[in-house]
Sequence to fold (67 residues):
Amino acid sequence: MQNPDKQDNVRDFASLEQLVVLSNMESINALLIRQGLPQGERLVQLNSAAITQMKSLVGSSLKKRLR
Fold:
């Protein structure tokens, strides 16, 4: 996050890309909970998905700015 020392809601200081990924992670987590996956397994899958999504979103944003 851009301001990790802030005590307010993290969403108030997150970038657009971070907000998109956070929303997606909440949805994926709910799905994984319904599937009965334990917390540790969910964390591994969510972390992997978040990294993939952030790389994609940031890469896409960078390409648009370079054009």
Q: What stands out?
A: Residues 20 and 35 are 23 Å apart (CA to CA).
